[in-house]
Design a protein that fits this description.
- This protein is of the alpha/beta class and 294 residues long.
- It contains 13 helices and eight strands.
- The chain has two domains: 64 residues, no CATH class; 204 residues, Alpha/Beta hydrolase fold, catalytic domain (Rossmann fold, 3-Layer(aba) Sandwich), CATH 3.40.50.1820.
- It has an eight-stranded mixed beta sheet, sandwiched between helices.
């Protein structure tokens, strides 16, 4: 339990508590001492690198009930899942996630009369590849939305929120959007990445420079949820947990502040991932989508 201000003042001789570094932080720190340049190159490669997370038994049960299709998007195969009948909803998972993480919402939305589509993003789940970026994922979202029509709602989680809003900001059509635990911009993602690896300022600067070479120097203002939703003319629901350790709730509040047609729901004690398996959250999403379609 954190010390209170009174306790800190009454016990000034106590040593400051240090957080134990993770193995990857220790290894990355050693590489940085040997060659900051190589550390910068490795960090940039890791920025795009993805992991194929395994699905649980329960997630696999729901995925097996889907109508499954494997499609080519550019040079990668993408696995697409569909359930139910009714008003269309597209689910978009976050970085290093997969469609399996969304299966609690799948069942809840199908029970409420929606037709649900989900997909494993490139480099995720059963889709091919081991790296991707926001441009590639938003391209998949754009094509799926074009095929399903402008009356499709989107429910996205974490980095998936940025990918979905990037697609919409660049011409894709959706009837409404639910953003669960959204980061407000790419700067937030870089800060999270910096913390995970334990990068120093010199290495972080290298990563920033290499990203700018790929996406342009204006990427920090251009790849921004706040800028995209500011121009969005569709209703939105933002759901964020007050104890989210990965994407602080201040991000959700910041997005809500500039999104004129948005509602904000703050949960407590669900964190960044359990929020996807909460019955009240699923009910709120269903009610929002039904009202938006009326």
């Amino acid at each position: 339990m954190p010390l209170t201000t009174t306790q800190l003042l009454s016990a000034p001789c106590k040593r400051k508590i240090k957080h134990k570094r993770t193995p990857i932080q220790i290894a990355f720190s050693a590489l940085t001492r040997i060659s900051p340049y190589l550390a910068g190159r490795l960090a940039t490669l890791l920025w795009y690198r993805t992991q194929h997370r395994c699905v649980t038994v329960e997630e696999q049960r729901v995925l097996k009930q889907a109508s499954t299709e494997v499609r080519k998007f550019a040079d990668k195969s993408v696995c697409i899942y569909r359930w139910g009948e009714g008003a269309p909803v597209l689910l978009t998972h976050g970085w290093n996630g997969n469609a399996g993480q969304m299966t609690f919402l799948v069942e809840a939305l199908v029970d409420q009369g929606f037709q649900v589509t989900a997909f494993d993003a490139p480099g995720h789940g059963h889709s091919s590849g081991n790296s991707t970026d926001i441009i590639e994922i938003s391209g998949v979202i754009t094509q799926l939305l074009q095929e399903s029509g402008g009356d499709t709602a989107v429910v996205a989680h974490s980095f998936g929120c940025m990918c979905a809003m990037h697609a919409i900001a660049n011409g894709a059509s959706a009837s409404s959007v639910v953003c669960i635990s959204p980061p407000k911009d790419v700067t937030t993602l870089l800060q999270q990445f910096t913390n995970i690896l334990g990068m120093n300022s010199a290495v972080t600067h290298q990563v920033r420079r290499r990203l700018e070479q790929r996406f342009g120097e204006k990427m920090w203002s251009r790849l921004s949820m706040q800028e995209w939703v500011r121009r969005a003319d569709i209703p939105g629901l933002i759901i964020h947990d007050s104890r989210d350790r990965y994407i602080p709730v201040s991000n959700g509040r910041a997005v809500h502040t500039v999104w004129k047609e948005s509602q904000l729901q703050i949960t407590r004690g669900l964190g960044h991932m359990r929020i996807l398996q909460n019955a009240e959250v699923a009910t709120s999403i269903g009610h929002f989508l039904i009202k938006s379609n009326q």
